[in-house]
Design a protein that fits this description.
Length: 377
């Protein structure tokens, strides 16, 4: 099967842009990715767009603004994992020889809804009973603290780390330091989670060009390959709320496909929608054993200077979480560290991983999980 390389990346600063259209958010990020790749319109065989709340046919609307009509344009909705799944589909098509080069876009505009928690499916039994995403993660946090002896300070420390990272990221929505005391004393949302332990809603867009052709060494002296791309759905049944079985399964498949293990990861962008999520995903990704995530954090292993930097771009907590944009934004961040265009780490990694889950459906552990392994080739 064909190898797949990144050729260009683009992203706009995440924030709130209620006066713009979805297309006006996406087109600048896509133009930057196309310009960085030096691809002409004739080089792009297909356009993929990950989006949740943007209405009908966002891929076609954005493609028109880019002059990329007259070729396949695919719309992908998979909740928070939408653009990560879009990338997975593009990578699969390239590996299968169906196309050579694709543009993948992630975009979302949540500011038009005003604020508050995400709109979920009203017909879902749990949602009909009043369940919200903060409540789900608060329950996980309560169970985890009780089962492992972790503390509320451990949860808050995730926010401190990620906001410190985001303060260095010009594309982050929330760019200021949040001391531990401020995190703990911010407005309660769902016990034990406070406001600064929950990702904010907003708008954003990111894009990548992927191709079976190796990029020009003058542009990408460190060529970044998509070494693994895995997507899977969760299972229905009884689940331990303190474990992330779907992520464990998908990560294991990605490690096998890339020929690596968690010990090889030099930079990681994972789905920290709430502080407890980051700790659970340390364990699910195999960075440590069950109940050991707080120790990993305390020891600095996941800091920018650590062995496995996690969410060096600020993660969802600081960069923001415009749903459809998040998966590709993670790829843009990791690719920047691998190729050396982003220099906030104290080392130059050779292997990175992006991880995005999505969906809250009654009975599921998670609806979908996407993991990509990127490696310098």
């Amino acid at each position: 099967m064909a190898e797949v390389y990144l050729h260009g990346t683009g992203i706009i600063p995440f924030g709130r842009y209620p006066d713009r259209t979805l297309e006006q958010l996406a087109v600048p990020a896509a133009w930057d990715a196309l310009a960085a790749s030096a691809a002409s319109s004739t080089d792009i065989d297909a356009v993929y767009c990950g989006n949740v709340y943007g209405g009908m046919l966002p891929a076609q609307r954005i493609a028109a603004g880019l002059g990329l009509t007259g070729r396949p344009a695919y719309n992908v909705e998979a909740a928070c994992s939408s653009s990560a799944v879009a990338l997975h589909l593009a990578v699969g098509a390239i590996r299968a020889g169906e196309l050579d080069t694709a543009l993948v876009i992630g975009v979302e505009q949540l500011s038009v809804f005003g604020g508050g928690t995400l709109r979920l499916n009203a017909t879902d039994p749990d949602v009909a009973q009043g369940l919200t995403m903060p409540a789900v993660y608060a329950m996980r946090a309560q169970r985890y603290l009780r089962a492992t002896g972790a503390t509320v300070e451990d949860l808050a420390a995730v926010s401190v780390k990620n906001h410190a990272n985001g303060a260095l990221n010009p594309n982050a929505q929330f760019r200021r330091l949040t001391p531990l005391d401020e995190v703990l004393k911010s407005r309660p949302i769902a016990d034990p989670l406070t406001l600064l332990q929950c990702c904010g809603s907003g708008d954003g867009a990111a894009a990548v060009v992927v191709s079976r052709h190796r990029p020009d060494a003058r542009t990408w002296p460190r060529a970044v390959q998509v070494a693994a791309s895995v997507v899977d759905s969760g299972t229905v049944g009884a689940h331990d709320m303190t474990r992330e079985d779907l992520t464990t399964r998908v990560a294991g498949q990605a490690y096998a496909a890339a020929g690596i293990g968690p010990q090889d990861l030099g930079v990681i962008e994972l789905h920290d929608a709430f502080t407890i999520a980051e700790l659970l995903y340390y364990e699910a990704l195999g960075l440590c054993g069950y109940g050991e995530a707080p120790g990993l954090l305390r020891e600095g292993v996941t800091e920018r200077s650590g062995r496995h930097p996690v969410n060096a771009g600020g993660g969802l907590l600081s960069r923001g979480h415009p749903l459809g944009a998040t998966g590709i934004a993670q790829v843009v961040e990791v690719a920047g560290h691998l190729r050396g265009s982003t220099t906030t780490l104290e080392h130059r990694p050779s292997v990175g991983l992006t991880h995005c889950t999505g969906g809250g459906i009654s009975g599921y552990d998670h609806a979908v999980c996407s993991v990509h392994v990127l490696a310098v080739n």
